[in-house]
Amino acid sequence: MKTHVTTRINDETVEFLCEPQQTLLHVLRNELGLTGTKEGCGSGDCGACSVTVNDRLVCSCLVLAVEADGAKIGTIEGVASSDKLHVIQEKYLEHAALQCGICTPGLIVSTKALLEENPNPTEAEARYFLAGNLCRCTGYDKIIKAVMDSAKSLNQGA
Questions:
Q1: 3-78: CATH homologous superfamily?
Q2: Any idea what DSSP says for residue 23?
Q3: With 60 as the cut, is the pLDDT of residue 158 above it?
Q4: What's the gap between Cα 79 and its chain centre?
Q5: Of residues 3, 19, 2, the one with CA closest to residue 70
Q6: Is 122 exposed, middle or buried (0-12, 13-18, 19+ CB in 10 A)?
Q7: Cβ density class 43-61: b for 16+ within 10 Å, e for less
Q8: With left for phi above 0 and alpha for psi between -120 and 50, is residue 10 left, alpha or beta?
Q9: pLDDT tens-place string over residues 30-48
Q10: Are 73 and 51 in contact (CB under 8 A)?
Q11: Which residue, 99, 25, 7, is CA-closest to 16?
Q12: Thinking of the domain 87-155, which architecture would CATH place it in?
């Protein structure tokens, strides 16, 4: 039997029906068409499906969609404004911190969560916070450079 869920996704009220066993990742991608959130492992080990639920970073493959009822969800689609990339997205491009793109949405959502929690992280703190996001293509130096440069730009009001 399907459950009716009402939630806010990227500051818009959204309603959907889901089976009790469906993950938030499945509903985001397959029911709501928010395909920016990627499925990597399905077991919470890679971070490709990272979203925020009530401003807390989670792997959407580990969250049941019914748990989103009444929650505030943030996905990669909500990071940029309508016609302008977010500073974090710009810095990922500037530092070539992406290649195949599977990990990129989760890394950007995670970076945003980090910088909202800690606007001026050390490199070690950034590496620790992003440890749940795996990348097989770029390595992590360019990613960390993008994160640190994002923090600098955001702190300067860019």
A1: Beta-grasp domain (3.10.20.30)
A2: B
A3: no
A4: 9
A5: 3
A6: exposed
A7: ebebbbbbbbbeeebbbbb
A8: left
A9: 999 999 999 999 999 999 9
A10: yes
A11: 7
A12: Orthogonal Bundle (1.10)
Length of the chain: 158
CA 28 from chain center: how many Å?
12
CB 138 within 8 A of CB 97: yes
* Cα–Cα distance for residue pair 111/129, rounded to 1 Å: 8
Please give the structure tokens belonging to residue 22: 């469906």
pLDDT tens column, 86-127: 999 999 999 999 989 999 999 999 999 999 999 999 999 999
**Residue 60, both tokens:** 């959407």
The span from the CA of 115 to the CA of 80, in Å, is 15
Nearest to 16 by CA among 76, 73, 81, 82: 73
- Identify the residue whose tokens are 């703190």: 125
Residue type, 48: A
Q: What residue segments make up the domains of the chain, in order of their start?
A: 3-78, 87-155
This prediction's pTM: 0.95
